[in-house]
Design brief:
This protein is α+β, with helices and mostly antiparallel strands and 211 residues long. It is built from seven helices and seven strands, in the order ββββαββααααβαα. It folds into two domains: 43 residues, no CATH class; 166 residues, Butyryl-CoA Dehydrogenase, subunit A, domain 3. The strands form three sheets. A three-stranded antiparallel beta sheet has the order 6-5-7. The protein has a two-stranded antiparallel sheet with strand order 1-2. Strands 3-4 form a two-stranded antiparallel ribbon. The radius of gyration is 21 Å and the shape is elongated. Bound molecules: zinc ion. The site of zinc ion (ZN) has 8 residues, from loops.
């Protein structure tokens, strides 16, 4: 593990703009603004280990989420079920290319890229393999973080689908469970990854090397 990062730079309270010298905190500690009480800075517990484990768990759910049936419908006495992959191939087959691309992007590509990114970052920190390239990589990963709200949106759709189960002959399958767990892991990595700690360490390790 890398030693705790600490700089003498000033940080501003996000709520009231009061300026403070950046504190050196241990894991699990947080600094609060003396003026308004908002959290200025927080060091999360076991951030790297938890992110590493969650991203591996999320990637393990990827294959079942894509190939197992996610939903079944009984129509005219006949039962049909489909996996996420079936849905995408059906959409392509019927000429709905744009919708197929959107489903692929938002249901598979974005969560997967975020999990792989989190796995790579936590792997480099866990095994002390920090290289200058990682700073650029983390900047790109940070851009993807804004897509994390999309997972919440997808989870909301799944919850509403579950509500429909009472009224229709709809059944959920193991694929949907794997898909929910995949989205959950993809959302949780942004909660467990201590971005302040990663930024500070990368700035210290990579920028010092360049200067
Ligand atoms: Zn404040």
């Amino acid at each position: 593990m890398v030693d705790q990062a600490c700089t003498s730079e000033l940080i501003a309270c996000q709520q009231c703009d009061a300026l403070y010298k950046q504190p050196c905190l241990n894991e699990g500690q947080k600094a609060e603004c003396g003026r308004c009480g908002a959290t200025l800075f927080e060091r999360k517990n076991n951030s790297i280990e938890r992110t590493f484990s969650l991203s591996i768990a999320g990637l393990l759910f990827l294959t079942p989420a894509i190939i197992l049936p996610i939903i079944g419908v009984t129509l005219a006495g006949q039962f049909h079920n489909a996996s996420l992959l079936d849905c995408i191939t059906q959409l392509i087959g019927k000429g709905f290319y744009m919708i197929a691309i959107l489903v692929f992007m938002f249901a598979i590509a974005v969560p997967t890229v975020r999990l792989i990114g989190a796995l790579y970052i936590s792997y480099c920190f866990k095994f002390n393999k920090i290289k200058p390239f990682l700073l650029h990589f983390f900047r790109a990963y940070h851009q993807l973080d804004s897509w994390s709200m999309l997972n919440v949106f997808l989870l909301a759709i799944i919850v509403s689908m579950y509500k429909l189960l009472d009224d229709t002959e709809l059944s959920v399958d193991y694929g949907l469970l794997a898909f929910v767990l995949l989205l959950l892991c993809s959302t949780l990595v942004s909660v467990t990854l201590d971005q302040d700690y990663v930024w500070q360490t990368l700035e210290k390790e990579c920028l010092d090397e360049n200067s």
